[in-house]
């Protein structure tokens, strides 16, 4: 049987086709990238082509089922029992129901409409949901502003924006985490600063037994006319999800800054590079999803791309965690910068949460932290999936130490001692796997720190990511470690594991897993807006400060309008972690800055004035605050912080680090008629020493070279 192909869409007076004869978009010359009228015209033409519905001849006969050869379904009359992941209940399917058989034939025949032959059924179901397909498999309730989407196995929806996802029937997967019917709703964040998220349909645990069951599921969320249209897209193994708009204090606070107003949207005004233009042209701008704050992307834009070695590493580690008798494998993830370590860890944590209630996480990357503002080393337990970039899931760790810098090159010993201190605070029960994140510094001293970490901690697996088919540093195999020099350890491979383990048995032999990352732009820092590392550090800090906002909907309150805490000078000690500052200048350095709220073991003793630390301590940190002002006359610090008063009473130390406040906090202060505080224009970068000092890591200082020669 044959059907008519979609009507060809003309772009101006030309028919653009690719090498296979399929319709495609017109090529974009580099000269037009920065031309706004040309780009706007192209976007409008693309929108018109999306709106134009194809002319499809409906099939008269039913399409043959393809489930037998694809899924290997059992014969009629046999009951199947399936155990769902994430602790869901078990379902039993009775396949000999007449109603069920009629429903299967109906759903497969309807879903077959528009196909050339029954052999192509599975191919049509797979792939990206885009364009006209979204109008057939999604229906929106305009009154409640929500959309119900039907997905088949292996169909994907790649999008920008944010939404609240609820699985009404079946199963879908996002970033390795399986979301099933009966579970809670999950927030999905896909901002322009990171790789777009994808929702992938999975095979349902049980099949829909009748058309009435499918209609009953939709009845609560769609009016009758929309239900009738959507039922035509539902098969016995479809997954049905509910998508709703979401707004949180974090998103409201970030959107209040002009430079971040387009963070969860496509950059429709600024086309600075070709990648932004490509994403704009790939946006499907007329679908039932757009009104929710979601912008679907077509197949020209890739979501998360996993190489073969990437998948192998995930499967290996997950299999070990599922079958480990102790239940506590220790996985250290390392690799150079911009190779995808953080994304790999998020997918690994999400996948593990399908089988275990929690995963422990030790943060060793000061510059790109996952759950806290930059400059922190932390240990925490993850119980919820990570369905967005780091700034969307900021949380308070179980244990945290404020190092105060985005790199540890100025004090390597304090970095290692801080990690050891966190490890000692870990629960001795060790019922959950633990993942150790590391820095992207894999040269010189940075590589030596990796060697030390493998020796100090009882690592069971080392996952080493690289790119371009080569290793950016030596492979950290057990054989290599026997002769490698660390910063604090040296061969023979005598380790410090006895310090952390109950028994004095020799260290376990760990497994080394190599991963070759193959995504676009691997090995290089993103150049688009919000993709640079310093911008992402600002986003994490802004997300943390958004906790100062009210959880109730309403206008965003700027920080200068909030009431601060009053802290006496004699109640806390003030210290600087990253440089030497004379006491008379310390107040000038800390005013209007971010400070870590720490707890020293020693009691603060004062003779009536402020107390200053002579060196940076290694002590617990409970959170952060903004030292808004200092009243010298009354001896008070004015502190803004989201920390609860009961926890704040334990704080006796304020640590100033090199993590600065985001510029938008200071430059955007609405409601101030006078000169903005903390900002000056009387500064010249032409003066000698006025610019930032550049530090070259991994290079031996001249004094060490001289001493070694002597």
UniProtKB/TrEMBL annotation:
It is found in: Nucleus, Nucleolus. Residues 83-118 have a biased composition (Polar residues). Its main location: nucleus. Residues 561-662 form the NOL9 C-terminal domain. The keyword Ribosomal protein does not apply. InterPro entries: Clp1/Grc3, CLP1_P, NOL9_C, NOL9_N, P-loop_NTPase. This is Polynucleotide 5'-hydroxyl-kinase NOL9. It comes from Oreochromis niloticus.
């Amino acid at each position: 049987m044959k059907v008519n192909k979609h009507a060809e869409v003309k772009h101006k007076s030309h028919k653009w086709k690719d090498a296979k004869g399929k319709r495609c978009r017109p090529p974009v010359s580099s000269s037009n990238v920065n031309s706004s009228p040309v780009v706007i015209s192209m976007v409008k033409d693309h929108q018109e082509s999306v709106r134009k519905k194809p002319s499809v001849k409906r099939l008269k006969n039913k399409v043959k089922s393809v489930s037998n050869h694809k899924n290997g379904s059992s014969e009629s009359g046999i009951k199947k029992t399936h155990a769902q992941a994430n602790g869901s209940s078990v379902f039993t399917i009775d396949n000999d129901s007449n109603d069920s058989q009629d429903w299967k034939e109906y759903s497969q025949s309807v879903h077959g409409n528009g196909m050339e032959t029954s052999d192509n059924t599975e191919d049509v179901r797979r792939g990206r949901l885009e364009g006209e397909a979204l109008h057939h498999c999604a229906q929106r309730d305009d009154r409640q502003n929500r959309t119900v989407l039907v997905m088949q196995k292996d169909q994907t929806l790649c999008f920008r924006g944010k939404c609240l996802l609820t699985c009404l029937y079946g199963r879908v997967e996002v970033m390795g985490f399986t979301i099933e019917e009966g579970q809670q709703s999950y927030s999905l964040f896909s901002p322009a600063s990171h790789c777009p998220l994808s929702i992938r349909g999975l095979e349902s645990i049980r099949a829909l037994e009748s058309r009435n069951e499918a209609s009953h599921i939709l009845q609560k969320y769609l009016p009758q006319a929309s239900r009738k249209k959507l039922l035509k897209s539902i098969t016995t193994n479809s997954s049905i999800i509910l998508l709703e708009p979401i707004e949180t204090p974090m998103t409201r606070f970030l959107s209040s800054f002009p430079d971040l107003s387009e963070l969860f949207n496509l950059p429709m005004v600024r086309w600075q590079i070709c990648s932004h233009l490509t994403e704009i042209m790939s946006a499907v701008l007329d679908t039932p999803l757009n009104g929710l704050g979601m912008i679907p992307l077509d197949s020209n834009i890739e979501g998360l791309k996993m190489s073969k070695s990437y998948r192998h590493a995930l499967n290996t580690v997950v299999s070990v965690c599922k079958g480990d008798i102790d239940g506590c494998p220790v996985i250290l993830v390392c690799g150079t910068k911009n190779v995808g370590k953080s994304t790999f860890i998020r997918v690994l944590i999400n996948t593990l949460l399908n089988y275990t209630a929690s995963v422990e996480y030790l943060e060793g990357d000061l510059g790109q932290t996952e759950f806290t503002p930059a400059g922190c080393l932390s240990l925490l337990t993850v119980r919820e999936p990570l369905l967005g970039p780091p700034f969307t899931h900021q949380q308070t760790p179980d244990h945290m130490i404020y190092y105060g810098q985005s790199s540890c090159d100025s004090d390597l010993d304090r970095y290692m001692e801080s990690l050891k201190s966190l490890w000692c605070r870990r629960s001795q029960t060790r019922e959950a796997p633990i993942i150790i994140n590391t820095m992207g510094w894999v040269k010189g001293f940075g590589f030596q720190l990796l060697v030390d970490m493998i020796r100090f901690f009882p690592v069971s697996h080392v996952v080493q990511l690289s790119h371009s088919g080569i290793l950016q540093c030596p492979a950290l195999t057990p054989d290599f470690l026997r002769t490698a020099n660390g910063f604090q350890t040296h061969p023979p491979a005598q380790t410090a594991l006895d310090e952390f383990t109950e028994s004095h048995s020799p260290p376990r032999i760990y497994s080394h897993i190599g991963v070759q990352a193959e995504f676009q732009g691997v090995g290089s820092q993103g150049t688009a807006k919000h993709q640079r590392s310093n911008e992402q550090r600002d986003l994490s800090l802004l997300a943390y400060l958004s906790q100062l906002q009210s959880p109730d909907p309403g206008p965003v309150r700027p920080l200068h309008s909030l009431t601060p805490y009053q802290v006496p000078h004699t109640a806390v000690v003030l210290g600087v972690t990253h440089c030497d500052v004379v006491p008379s200048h310390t107040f000038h350095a800390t005013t209007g800055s971010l400070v870590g709220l720490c707890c020293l073991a020693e009691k603060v003793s004062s003779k009536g004035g402020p107390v200053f630390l002579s060196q940076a301590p290694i002590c617990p940190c409970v959170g952060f605050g903004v030292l808004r002002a200092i009243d010298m006359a009354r001896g008070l610090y004015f502190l803004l912080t989201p920390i609860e008063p009961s926890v704040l009473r334990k704080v006796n130390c304020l640590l100033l680090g090199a993590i600065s406040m985001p510029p938008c906090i200071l430059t955007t202060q609405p409601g101030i008629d006078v000169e903005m505080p903390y900002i000056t224009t009387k500064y010249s970068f032409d003066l000698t020493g006025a610019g930032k000092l550049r530090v070259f890591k991994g290079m031996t200082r001249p004094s060490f070279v001289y001493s070694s020669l002597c």
